[in-house]
Design a protein that fits this description.
Structural class: alpha+beta
CATH superfamily of the domain at 14-202: tricorn interacting facor f3 domain
CATH topology of the domain at 14-202: Immunoglobulin-like
Largest sheet: 8 strands, mixed
Strand content: 15-25%
Distance between the termini: 18 Å
Shape: globular
Number of helices: 27
Bound molecules: zinc ion
Mean pLDDT: 97
CATH class of the domain at 14-202: Mainly Beta
CATH architecture of the domain at 14-202: Sandwich
Number of strands: 31
Oligomer: single chain
């Protein structure tokens, strides 16, 4: 038995859930912040939980990397034989029905590089407690089903830390001693520890206010480093729009007197919904036209909305345990998606989200890390903040909406809050509220929570001219996933329509129905296979299936290329128009990949060129939709479509298609570029302008791939004259792999060296470089002064982008990419296990690689696994990959 076997981290199981042995009546915290050692004093008022099965259970408080100074029970120092301390807990024996514990610990936030618990960033203090960071601050019942009221007193040097923030309302402040001041906060709402937050530092504040529909005035405050104050206006507008939307659409009002957002540049994730004091990655707060792209602006608006919406879906009603994470995340992502759809373009938003789902979540579902929306086990909960929990979870909530309709969905939501406000609940509670409010049985539907994997829905159609019927035989299967060899049928809503030969919608009536019932129908597939017969169909229709992407499934229907081109031109569902183009391009690419593997000559099918030309020249169409039609699927997405991954063949095929389309549509791209070139002079964040910039820049990308001097000059001119980052970045991206790229990159770095968020873009572009020496470039860039391995954004921009998105670069035949990743994972694991673990996921596709690469990847994984001191985070990814 090696060392790892003896101490291998053990999984936590959903079925082992037990209610807490003790509950908290209140907690009072005092922080004495200091440069070398911070003292945290906590006063816990506890009582036994009558629902706990053991009446004299020990009190086990979670705690990690804490130095215990003292424990007082009911005001008296406790003798050390009444408690045990180990690496992960403080256990107190022999307590009565209730107790008051006063615990003092010391911590060293300045040494905390994991960015969990209390840590420092650019000289200021911040916290991140979700999921289990609070235990790195003080001993506590660090689980979401223990909710209580918090008061927090912060004491710190007045000049270094003029701003002292925590959750709730500021109730007092004063001078503590000569140089130190204090502020006291009271949060009137019960909350679990993961929603605790503290911020201390030199920060500037943008102030505004929002008056709720019942007339309460809420102070809005965004705190950033002083030089960033001018970049907060878009975030502030986004807050106000979110507050208004949640009132209008969900009837939900904000509940505290102030709502604070703080931006920090060192942050593991996007942002955190701490009660009344959201803490954000600067990436999702700071934006001005010269430094942020349209995508960044949308990201800020969406993440602000997401965290704001959590105040109800997450905070007022929270999760019983971390297996229920999607209860709050899936629901809140669905809410922010709908918000963005209402603020921008619904069709474009839906397509963007489906692309993410397909590229990232379908890949996860097909990987060794596949897990259900409600997992039943985990080794490290931080590994489960995944696209499955978030994005697939949002699709599950969207399906309730699709099945119940907007009104029925809202009834379900209202009942959910009526029943559970102030509680920590489960996904079953959510399903029950949805079902009970509508008399709808969600029993089978709940398999979406328990079964992993992406279902495949196969449709076979048959037109019967004599009987005027159109029959759809629909069947479903779901591939095995770890621990789940067989699946039961899902309850799948399938929205569809039928088009006649002229492209018009056919009113639909199913056999047995008394009347026509609209042109888009939602069929409910609940069996392994089912037949649906439409009557009164006089000629062969073209089916438009899975409208709006009504379920997170893979659709298998044998459209001809003519039919796909027809749908691209005529479908009334914009999602399906794009989807038809995507299907057509995917099929062509799969053929090209096969041809590239067989070293055959590649050629471009005429149907594709014609369909794409028609789309490009359709001046009535939304330019954003056209831009998306011309955005080729990612290499990684293509890798997930083939049985065996040959990264070079995928790259060759995709690059061939890009250049071939550029050649075939050269004049159309040129014309379209010119049409939109001057169309958005002064930068405005508005859907119409975003759409124009998007299509213009797609055209620029194709044109520069022709390597003609005139088009390269076009890109250079755009690069030099751009007044916004969208255009500047697009031009730089177009140039980067050309001989002219080096100068452009140098100019860009020179201009933006002091703006870390802009420099992230510079790193990302180079991490995606398609030339053979990409890995050497990445290595060299690690030495650049703007790169810091301790900053997650930098690691994501350079290392994670290279390892997880530069398919042929990372999966080099010689295995150098794998060795590099392994080396970086080990370095990072010592600093920040969450970030290391994200990088480790780059191996998730290894089993599908062609044999040479598969062997190389396996060697790298086995070397990693041999390290006995891996974090639980990395251990879980590596061991599941090797299982
Ligand atoms: Zn969230």
């Amino acid at each position: 038995m090696n060392k790892r076997d003896s101490i291998a981290p053990q999984p936590i199981l959903l079925r082992d859930y037990v209610v807490p042995a003790f509950l908290l009546d209140r907690v009072d915290l005092t922080f004495e912040l200091d440069e070398t050692s911070t003292r945290v004093s906590s006063r816990l008022v506890l009582h036994r939980n009558p629902d706990h099965p053991v009446s004299d259970a020990d009190l086990v408080l979670d705690g990690h990397e804490l130095m215990l100074e003292s424990v007082l029970l009911d005001g008296e120092p406790m003798s050390t034989d009444r408690y045990d301390v180990d690496d992960e807990s403080l256990t107190i024996k022999g307590l009565g029905e209730s107790a008051i514990l006063e615990i003092t610990t010391r911590i060293e936030p300045q040494k905390n590089t994991s960015l969990m618990g209390l840590y420092k960033s650019n000289g200021n203090f911040f916290t991140q407690c979700e999921a289990e960071g609070f235990r790195k601050i003080t001993y506590y019942l660090d689980r979401p089903d223990v909710m209580t009221r918090f008061t927090t007193t912060i004491i710190a040097d007045r000049s270094k830390y003029p701003v002292l923030l925590s959750n709730g309302n500021r109730v007092g402040e004063g001078q503590y001693d000569r140089n130190r001041h204090w502020v006291k906060w009271v949060d009137p709402f019960k909350k679990p520890s993961y929603l605790f937050a503290l911020v201390a530092g030199k920060l500037s504040c943008l102030q505004d206010s929002f008056t709720t529909r019942s007339g309460r005035k809420v102070a809005l405050e965004i705190y950033v480093e002083p030089q960033d104050l001018e970049k907060c206006h878009h975030a502030m507008e986004s807050v106000k729009r979110s507050m208004k939307w949640d009132e209008d659409v969900y009837g939900l009002e904000y509940d505290l007197d102030s709502y604070m957002i703080v931006a920090v540049s060192d942050f593991n994730m996007g942002a955190m919904e701490n009660k009344g004091l959201n803490i954000f990655n600067t990436k999702y707060v700071l934006a001005r036209p010269e430094t942020a792209t349209d995508a960044d602006y949308m990201g800020v608006e969406a993440v602000i909305a997401h965290e704001y919406f959590h105040n109800w879906t997450g905070n007022r009603v929270t999760c019983r345990d971390w297996f229920q994470l999607s209860l709050k995340e899936g629901l809140t992502v669905f809410r922010d998606q709908e918000f963005t759809a209402d603020m921008t373009s619904r069709a474009v938003k839906r397509i963007d989200d489906v692309r993410t789902l397909r590229t990232a979540q379908f890949a996860e579902d097909a990987s060794p890390m596949a897990h259900p929306v409600r997992p039943d086990s985990y080794i490290e909960i931080n590994n489960f903040y995944t696209v499955t929990i978030y994005e697939k979870g949002a699709e599950v909530v969207r399906m309730y909406h699709t099945l119940l309709g907007a009104e029925g969905y809202r009834k379900g939501i209202d009942l959910y809050f009526k029943r559970h406000d102030g509680q920590a609940v489960t996904c079953d509670d959510f399903a029950a509220a949805m079902g009970d409010a509508n008399g709808f049985d969600f029993t089978q539907f709940k398999r979406w929570y328990s079964q992993a994997g992406t279902p495949v829905v196969k449709v076979v159609s048959q037109f019967d001219a004599a009987n005027q019927t159109y029959t759809l035989d629909i069947s479903q299967t779901c591939p095995p996933t770890p621990g789940q060899p067989e699946k039961l049928p899902f309850h799948i809503p399938i929205a569809l329509g039928l088009l006649d030969a002229a492209g018009a919608e056919i009113p639909l009536q199913l056999a047995g129905e008394a009347s026509l019932q609209g042109t888009t129908r939602v069929l409910q597939l609940t069996e392994a296979s089912q037949r649906f017969v439409f009557t009164g169909i006089s000629a062969q229709p073209t089916p438009s299936l899975l409208r709006g992407f009504s379920a997170p499934v893979k659709l298998d229907y044998p459209w001809t290329r003519q039919e796909l081109a027809f749908l691209m031109a005529h479908d009334s569902d914009s999602f399906c128009r794009w989807e038809a183009s995507h299907t057509l391009i995917r099929e062509v690419l799969l053929e090209l990949i096969a041809a590239a593997r067989a070293s055959e000559t590649l050629s471009l099918p005429g149907e594709l060129v014609d369909a794409m030309r028609r789309a490009l020249l359709d001046e009535a169409a939304d330019p954003a939709l056209i831009a998306l039609m011309f955005t080729l699927p990612a290499e990684t997405y293509l890798a997930d479509q083939v049985d065996e991954i040959h990264p070079d063949a995928i790259r060759t095929a995709r690059e061939y298609l890009r250049v071939a389309l550029a050649k075939a549509l050269r004049s159309e791209f040129k014309h379209t570029y010119a049409r939109f070139c001057g169309a958005t002079q002064a930068y405005r964040y508005a859907a119409v302008d975003i759409a124009k910039r998007a299509l213009k820049n797609v055209c620029l990308g194709y044109l520069t791939s022709l390597d003609e001097p005139a088009f390269i000059e076009l890109a250079q001119t755009q690069f030099q004259q751009a007044n916004n980052m969208t255009d500047s970045q697009a031009a730089l991206a177009a140039l980067v792999e050309l001989p002219q790229g080096a100068t452009a990159l140098a100019d860009f770095a020179n201009r933006w060296q002091d703006d870390p968020l802009v420099m992230n873009k510079w790193f990302t572009l180079q991490a995606m470089d398609k030339r053979a020496d990409a890995l050497d470039r990445v290595r060299a860039l690690q030495q650049h002064p703007a790169f810091q391995i301790t900053n997650p954004n930098k690691v994501y921009a350079l290392l994670a982008t290279f390892c997880s998105s530069n398919l042929a670069g990372f999966h080099r035949a010689d295995g150098a990419g794998y060795a590099f990743a392994a080396e970086q994972i080990l370095v990072l694991d010592k600093l920040n296990p969450q970030v290391a673990s994200r990088l480790a996921r780059s191996f998730n596709r290894w089993k599908k690689l062609e044999p040479t690469r598969r062997a190389q990847a396996k060697t790298a994984l086995e070397k990693l696994a041999a390290h006995a001191d891996l974090s639980r985070d990395v251990f879980e990814i590596i061991s599941k990959n090797l299982a």
